[in-house]
Amino acid sequence: MKAHVIFDFDQTLLPGESTVQVLELGLQYQGNAAQRLQKLASIAPRALAGNASAKELITLLSMVPSIRRKHIQLYVEQRLTQLPHALGQALHYLQQRQVGIHIISGGYMEWIVPLAQAWGIEARHVVANRFFWFGSRALTIRPSPLLSTAQGKGAIIRDWRRRGQLKGPVLMVGDGQADFRVFQQGLVDDFICIDYFVGKPLPDCAAIRRRAVHPDQVLGLIRQALAQQGLAI
């Protein structure tokens, strides 16, 4: 590959936080559904920002067994055609020009992989969390560096670099602090800040020169960043 572009998933390729959306599908027909959905809506923003208390995180973990494989299948079916057209075109354009496309996400492999494959991204280029399963029922979350603020996406990219899997310029495309952090750590050559889906953009996003406020802008910003690294595509 001539270069590599690493995408976040939630709020970058698709709107919303996929883990919350799948949990909502699992909880909606459970006992006390309204109360549990309200609690999820209250805790999720703090958990996603890394500000949830231990008690709140335990509450979220207790909701995981509500997820069944049928809920994930429904989520995938609902989202298959929701990738913005401009992003689909961007992925195709990059792949045709031998640019490696990757996804690193705090979401879950169980739904990100089938969606990524439908969009032409190989499963081996997707890294996300996973569940432990008992039959068709999710039990809990498998340990993962993506669950650790101290490790996070940087640990994955460091490992790829150590293995020689990232040849040429490497870009990060995402909406969150975890995405921006890998650029600050010097693990990627440039960062494209996404804020077309988010209601509250990354605080540093306004100061970042490569900022996409619409999906139509993403490919152009990627091409600009690669050109600055000496690769015209």
UniProtKB/TrEMBL annotation:
Its cofactor is Mg(2+). One of its GO terms (molecular function) is L-phosphoserine phosphatase activity. Pathway: Amino-acid biosynthesis; L-serine biosynthesis; L-serine from 3-phospho-D-glycerate: step 3/3. Pfam families: HAD. GO terms for biological process: L-serine biosynthetic process. It is an enzyme of class 3 (hydrolase). InterPro entries: HAD-like_SerB (IPR050582), HAD-like_sf (IPR036412), HAD_sf (IPR023214). This is phosphoserine phosphatase. Its EC number is 3.1.3.3. It comes from Pseudomonas fluorescens. GO terms for cellular component: cytoplasm. Keywords: Amino-acid biosynthesis, Hydrolase, Magnesium, Metal-binding, Serine biosynthesis. The keyword Metal-binding applies. It catalyses: O-phospho-D-serine + H2O = D-serine + phosphate; O-phospho-L-serine + H2O = L-serine + phosphate. NCBIfam families: HAD-SF-IB. The lineage of its organism: Bacteria, Pseudomonadati, Pseudomonadota, Gammaproteobacteria, Pseudomonadales.
